[in-house]
Hints:
By secondary structure, the protein is mainly alpha-helical. It has helices spanning 3-27, 51-77, 85-110, 115-144, 154-177, 193-219, 222-251, 256-277.
Amino acid sequence: MNAYERAVWLALGALIVIIISGSLVRLTGSGLGCSDWPNCNNTRFIDVSSGHAAIEQINRLFTGVVALSVAGAVALSLLLAKPVRKITNNAILLVIGVIAQVIIGAYVVLTGLNPWTNMVHFLVSFMLVTAAVVLLNRTRTLSSGVPPIDRQDVALKKALFSSAMISVVLGTVVTGSGPHSGSEAVTRLDISVRFATQLHSIAVWITVAISVLLAIRARRSVERWGTEGARIQFLLFSLVSQGFIGYVQYFAGVPAHLVAIHIAGSVMVWLAVLAVFLPTTRLNVLD
């Protein structure tokens, strides 16, 4: 692993961590721990005088770590022995995305944690993780070469990506209508939690069915399973684990600690989906 690949891993890790830390802000009811932006409140820029304020403040400060990591990815891309425009542009996209997230985050606070803006905030985080994974894959091609484009079951893998994306979106609807709003005073989506959960579950089960079908088809060929088997098994493991946690948290009354694990699991599932889907695209081709 070269220095630039390590820098991209750092950026990806920071983007994942802030998804989880942001969820902890909401799950601990600390969404309005800082009621202003960019100041924490109307008297202090930084305020850790209460637990809620400290949690929100730490999450805000960690945004600085994320910003530095993606800025570093841009700067280091220019210092490569042979700078590649697609890699630099990909890194710049991460910087633009993080700036957008700062603006969206400010709007979330200033609108009193409006659930719709919270949903956008979360979904943009997943878009940034996707962009970081693409950048990592592109970076790997500098040392290992561009892998051949996967032509096996492309339609199924596109369907997998689509159903997983819909599952994530519907998951934010469940959150927006559920009990963990980030503050007791926040309004929720005017949607039944039960109905939102049912829609989310349907999308997840479709994703599971597609994944099982992919596994069955891949197993028919020793050569194909040798290439794709590990990625598909990781996908199935992620989905089963996430589904188990999802049902347990629902029937347990959605306790905050299980919701936090479920959110972390959603990132794992998304990474597994990308590992199966991205090889079917031309995103690794740098010329």
